[in-house]
Automatic annotation (TrEMBL):
CDD domains in the cross-refs: NAT_SF (cd04301)
SUPFAM superfamilies registered for this protein in UniProt: Acyl-CoA N-acyltransferases (Nat)
InterPro entries, A to Z: Acyl_CoA_acyltransferase, GNAT_dom, MshD_Acetyltransferase
Pfam family, any one: Acetyltransf_1
Top-rank taxon, per record: Bacteria
Residues in coiled coil: none
Name of the protein in question: GNAT family N-acetyltransferase
Signal peptide bounds: none
Residue span, N-acetyltransferase domain: 1-149
Organism this protein belongs to: Marivirga aurantiaca
């Protein structure tokens, strides 16, 4: 198993990760074009880590870097975390979180955080098995800007 941060030339691996996210999160979002994904990978405020097994992407996560005004150190918002179903329960997700936290610590981040919906018991239980510092309950409000028919 290898955990690696993607660069802007590794769009194919990012697309493979998005396909895993679609399966894990049971969504059918259209995958953006490779140029858009390459631009995201070159953005210093967006980070993608993948887990590879035998040169095949089997999972990963995305991170948004959030500057703060209370602290000069940024926050890492871990947005999506997914491991292909055939590889879940083997410690790869925990290793991925640990690697990303090590990266954040080494690169001067204040902290990293991830959200899980309270009714997603599998996700909540997964994060509770990681080496987290604090657990907080919150209510999430969404403001959509798409036309509704």
């Amino acid at each position: 198993m290898e955990i690696k941060r993607l660069n802007q030339n590794e769009t194919k691996d990012f697309i493979n990760l998005i396909e895993i996210f679609k399966e894990v999160f049971e969504n059918d979002f259209q995958t953006p074009d490779p140029q858009h994904l390459s631009a995201l990978l070159s953005n210093p405020n967006f980070i993608v880590f993948v887990v590879r097994m035998n040169d095949k992407v089997i999972g990963g996560l995305t991170v948004y870097v959030l500057p703060q005004y209370y602290n000069i150190k940024p926050l890492a918002y871990i947005y999506d975390v997914g491991i292909a179903p055939d590889f879940q329960g083997k410690g790869m997700g925990k290793a991925l979180i640990k690697e990303v936290c090590s990266f954040c610590k080494a690169n001067g981040f204040d902290e990293a955080y991830v959200e899980a919906e309270s009714d997603d018991i599998e996700a909540v239980n997964f994060y509770r098995k990681t080496d987290f510092t604090n657990e907080m309950n919150a209510i999430h409000f969404t403001y959509s800007f798409t036309d509704k028919i």
